[in-house]
Amino acid sequence: MDQGRIRTKNDGRLYTPSSGQHVGELVLAIVTSADLHAGIASLWDSGKLDDEFTNLWAVADRTSFESLNDEEAAPGNPFPYCVFEVSPGVTTARMSGHSTNENHEIRDVPVQFVIFTRERASPDNRTAKRIAADLAAEVMAIFGGHPTLRPTVPTLSNGSVLIMQYQTDYGARTGDSEHSWVVKYLARLDVPMAV
After folding, report:
1. Domain 31-194 = CATH 3.30.2000.10
2. By Cβ atoms counted within 10 A, which residue in 22, 93, 170, 180 is the most buried?
3. Per-residue pLDDT band at 104 (split at 50, 70, 90)
4. Domain boundaries of the chain, sorted by first residue
5. Model's pTM, two decimal places?
6. Confidence of residue 18 (pLDDT cuts 50, 70, 90)
7. Is the distance from CB of 40 to CB of 111 less than 8 angstroms?
8. pLDDT at residue number 31
């Protein structure tokens, strides 16, 4: 069946039309990335991080916007909010799986959370930087990097997250009365790949 530039043959696998090469790795990367996005969103919800952000919003905004945004926030999203990005991963190892028809890939995938804040009026008179740092600590308490709390790793539908390795965090002023805080991770995934 012709699917634009990629075709399937009778075995159901995808091939490029020019070379006839199998493009399962491309599909694996797409599936793995989508699975990781879903796992991060699920852990955000179960870790109650949404409440940490939305409790600082006007009540009317709490059902209209998301506190965790995938790559970009919606126009008019109230402060504070978080944008996360999953960058392209790198396969670091391949190995056979539990059967002759299965292989595994170990893939390192950069993930970052960027928290955007704005100074608030009383009764919460914290600076935007302080709000950003406090919310970053909450993110690190769930995903890793917190000095006293053990992280929880996201779960995947296909494969597993071996570790969400904390890399760094830092703050930056983004405007008058606005601040951001970046928290970076390297997610090491063990992903099965049927052959």
Report:
1. yes
2. 180
3. confident
4. 31-194
5. 0.80
6. very low
7. yes
8. 57
